[in-house]
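Q: I have 178 residues here and want to know how they pack in 3D. Can you give me a structure?
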Amino acid sequence: MRTSEATDRVQLVFSLFDADGNGYLERGDFELMGSRVLATEPGADEAAKSALLGAFRRYWTTLVTELDANGDGKVSREEFTAIVLAPERFEETVDEFAEALAAYGDVNGDGFVPRPVFVALMTAIGFARPNIETLFEAFGPVSGDRIPVATWAEGIREYYQPEKAGIAGDHLTAGLVG
């Protein structure tokens, strides 16, 4: 059963991915988002950069392959909501995206994402700073003000599960959608 929280989460993500604000997701939106996120850590190793950009591209490819019935190269808000709230159609793509994004934040290779890196990455995606900070706290930072990569990756996966409510990711929609 789809929760209202899940619908709010998906609506927010759609608005962030729609980089040009035209009401549709297109290949260029994902390229732009990927380049913004990559720019937060210019010193990241090439494998991490490649994995993250590949995850953004696969996200787009999955959407357009599953949903673009008329072949116009666009995905509407309604189409997007239908696929991302259908885990059986989108699970592998979300897994790849979650792993790549969380790993990209592990700048020291120690299995943790420091707060400044987390904030920079989430800001590059377009989330609001107060919501980012609240989410980071919800993930339970450990010594050194950092969160485990695995915790963040799992949080991303949960974000796309339609039956979930009251999850850490719901902090991202607080005060923004309703």
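Q: Anything worth noting?
A: The chain has a mean pLDDT of 90. The radius of gyration is 15 Å.
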